[in-house]
Amino acid sequence: MTNKNTAIRVGMAPISWTNDDMPELGGETPYQQILSEVALAGFEGTEIGNKYPKDPKVLKEQLQMRGISIASAWFSAYLTTQTWEENERSFIAFRDYLHALGAKMINVAEQGNTIQGQMHTPIFDGKPEYTSQQWDQLTRGLDRFGDLAHDVGMEISYHHHMGTGVQTTSEIDRLMEGTDPDKVKLLVDVGHLLFSGEDPVDIVKRYASRVGHVHLKDIRPDVLQRVKDEKLSFLQAILEGVFTVPGDGVTDFKKVLQPLLDGGYHGWFMVEAEQDPAKADPLKSALTARRYLREHLGV
């Protein structure tokens, strides 16, 4: 595999093979197959999926056999709806699991009152809007997560997400302004920005120095229009194929990511496109994305 930009590592998340929000998607696929196909497609690493062994020693051995590693993983925070003590306890346990696997990044997403997992709630209606007190709880809590991550040589990146209280440009701005740049990085998810109607070129340009992790997925505009017209939920949108991988969509990822390519970004580009594996063959998607990243971004 050739990677001209050796500071950037490329991976593919397991969500194309089996879905954490809808475990029935790809439910029959063993985790060993996911890891093997990630490696076979030419990726250097992956993220944590719901089927991966909870024992880091077992998982680490499987990773080493294939020459890949764990880059990061999703952590569900409830800073706006649960006590700090509850959040701290679950964060530390998750941090220690990832640290044992050699990962350097934790992807944090606030899940208080999210509608992303509700099958029949239209994704563009009724997402949470945080009060001033909740924003304060969120930003202070994230800074404390950052400190806890630093204790073991790790970082956190905040994952903006459809159906949550941090989805839009103004909400991302508020989160970035309210947190310490040394403690909280930004996870740029190109697919979620496009889905929400934000401008990923603008977001990446503005926060290039704070980007800690990148999720690469594209959208199918015709499906997105149906999601709006038919008032579909986030899960229904996934089932209809709103997301796809770079190289199978319309977005110019080089244009979006140029500030990172030019600016010394040294994290991961992680392909992560939730799709129904019965409709979109995961290995084919992985090969398509890997070829696109190599040819168009030089990674």
CATH class: Alpha Beta
Uncertain ranges:
none
Q: Count every helix, treating DSSP H or I runs of 4 or more residues as helices.
A: 11
Overall mean pLDDT stands at: 95
| Gap from first CA to last CA | 9 Å
Outline the structure in words.
The protein has helices at residues 31-40, 56-66, 84-100, 132-150, 169-178, 190-196, 200-207, 221-229, 234-240, 253-262, 282-297; strands spanning 9-12, 45-47, 69-72, 74-77, 105-110, 155-159, 185-189, 211-216, 218-219, 243-244, 268-271. With 299 residues, it is of the alpha/beta class. It has one domain: Divalent-metal-dependent TIM barrel enzymes (TIM Barrel, Alpha-Beta Barrel), CATH 3.20.20. A seven-stranded parallel beta sheet has the order 1-11-8-7-6-5-4. It has a two-stranded parallel ribbon with strand order 2-3. A two-stranded antiparallel ribbon has the order 9-10. Helix 3 (84-100) runs parallel beside helix 4. The radius of gyration is 18 Å and the shape is globular. The model has no long low-confidence stretch (mean pLDDT 95).
